[in-house]
Amino acid sequence: MKLRDYCEKLKSEGLDVTVTAAGCGEGTVNKEALDKEVTGLSCDSRTVTPGTLFVCKGVGFKPEYLVKALENGAAAYVAGPDIRRAMAVLSNMYFCEPWKDVNLVGITGTKGKTTALYYLKSIMEGSHACGKGRFGYLSTIDTYDGVELFESHLTTPEAIELGQRLWNMAHSDIKAAAMEVSSQALKYDRTYGVRFKYGVFTNFGADHIGSTEHPSMEDYFASKLKIFDQCENAIVGMENIRIMDVLSAAKQCRNLTTYRAENVRKKGSSTVFDVTITETVPHQDESPLGMVLSSLGSETVIEGLRLTMPGLFNAENAAAAAAMALKLGATEDEIRSGLLNARAAGRMEFFENKERNVIAISDYAHNELSYEKLLSSAKEEYPGYRLVAVFGCPGGKGYSRRVDLPKVAAKYADFTWITEEDPADEDPYEISVQVLKNLQDFGGKGAICVDRTKAIRDAILNAEPKTVVLIIGKGREQYQHRGSSYDPVESDSELAERFINQPPAQQ
């Protein structure tokens, strides 16, 4: 398409942005530029090639980025207050709405997004409904789009990258895919214009409240609910503290599917449970939601599902995956097999020593709700065991976690090591001091060891018999976000595996 087409699209959307052609005055485009074909779209000046339409995006944008883009041959650039939505509009147009050719599932919620996605991945990769293996995904852990497989840095990528990933999927014969959709992505229009075949809302709890994220819980909740504005069908978990509000928002969708895990119990080293999946066409009038639920349509109960990953709470994530898989065409047998063999890197990874009396669990939990589920489940699954936690809090975001997370640790853990966790531009020791003080104020016991490798080593090697060490927050991530860089490190899971069978530390 020509630059003219993109200019007309931005105008039709009523966005407060301007388009400037290279060599023209600010906010102007001459006829010659309008008639030129746009051969690229980018918000990174380093990737600009001749003919690219450059997007001046972000609070951290610097004038030198634009200078570099023009030097590299950008045909024109877009700037203005509505630049984030404009970028999504341009991406959707440039990549020809690739989501139309993929059965796309968008998963949002405070916790469980990644685990539910990997359970679904395990099911669909073994399902004839997906051609056995042709399943795309964009997760917090990694991304697979049919062309590339790589480690992710954002839960939901920016709009231009998202368009590229979906285009790759559509042109790699991937018929179904799932992606995590963060509250930030919904609030700041990263997914604007994308239509999900199914929008999934797992649950809701406190997280991401702060000056650089959401100013309040209501803003966070409202951002999550926006997923129903851009999905054809809704899938909702019933274990939700705001369930009536969620169901009310989901009424605008064509169909509503609810799910819940039932009869959850421990059997040997497995979690056994049933899943109830109920489908209805939501009322579009003002009928009480109770009437919606009392007039539900078809119901499917899948009995005797089994998970070999630890964590009783994972039954709810598996229930979400089962509901999604059924909608995508998987059979009950494929669901059973997929869940039995499912693994999610960095999620409830289990390691034990040769004597089988010290257990280390690596998990990516990072908010109050997921901490509550993780630690309470560990207490229930390992009665009589001492519980030791190792975690930190990030810099520059999620400030409420510095209170919420030690509060949960104080409630369940016998001892807690406070350590570094993506400090960004803050001093990791100063963050740790704040977290330790809050832990002690809530009656917990702990100490600071900023060196995360040493904290994990000491927690495991000094563990008494019958101890569970919970290493929380980073999972399989192989970096620490320090300043503006992502420094390579050995992941929590790799460290746990390395230390669990070393001789105990000399006392």
Offer a few descriptive terms.
alpha/beta, about 35% helix, Protein-Tyrosine Phosphatase, Chain A, UDP-N-acetylmuramoyl-L-alanine:D-glutamate ligase, about 500 residues, 17 helices, Udp-n-acetylmuramoylalanyl-d-glutamate--2,6- Diaminopimelate Ligase, Chain: A, domain 1, 10-stranded mixed sheet, 6-stranded mixed sheet, 22 strands, globular
List the helices and strands and how they pair.
Blueprint: H1 3-12, E1 18-21, H2 31-34, E2 40-42, E3 52-55, H3 63-71, E4 76-79, H4 83-94, E5 103-108, H5 113-124, E6 135-138, E7 142-144, E8 149-151, H6 159-170, E9 176-180, H7 183-187, E10 196-201, H8 217-225, E11 231-237, H9 243-250, E12 255-267, E13 270-280, H10 289-294, E14 299-307, H11 314-327, H12 332-340, E15 349-352, E16 358-363, H13 368-381, E17 386-391, H14 401-412, E18 415-418, H15 428-441, E19 446-448, H16 452-461, E20 467-472, E21 479-482, E22 485-488, H17 492-499
Parallel strand pairs: 2-3, 3-4, 5-9, 5-10, 6-9, 10-11, 11-12, 16-20, 17-18, 17-20, 18-19
Antiparallel strand pairs: 1-4, 6-7, 7-8, 12-13, 13-14, 15-16, 21-22
Helix pairs in contact: 4-6, 5-11, 5-12, 13-14, 14-15, 16-17
Describe this structure as you would to a colleague.
This protein is α/β, with parallel strands linked by helices. It has helices at residues 3-12, 31-34, 63-71, 83-94, 113-124, 159-170, 183-187, 217-225, 243-250, 289-294, 314-327, 332-340, 368-381, 401-412, 428-441, 452-461, 492-499; strands at residues 18-21, 40-42, 52-55, 76-79, 103-108, 135-138, 142-144, 149-151, 176-180, 196-201, 231-237, 255-267, 270-280, 299-307, 349-352, 358-363, 386-391, 415-418, 446-448, 467-472, 479-482, 485-488. Helix 9 (243-250) links the parallel strand 11 (231-237) and strand 12 (255-267). Helix 5 (113-124) crosses helix 12 (332-340). The mean pLDDT is 90.
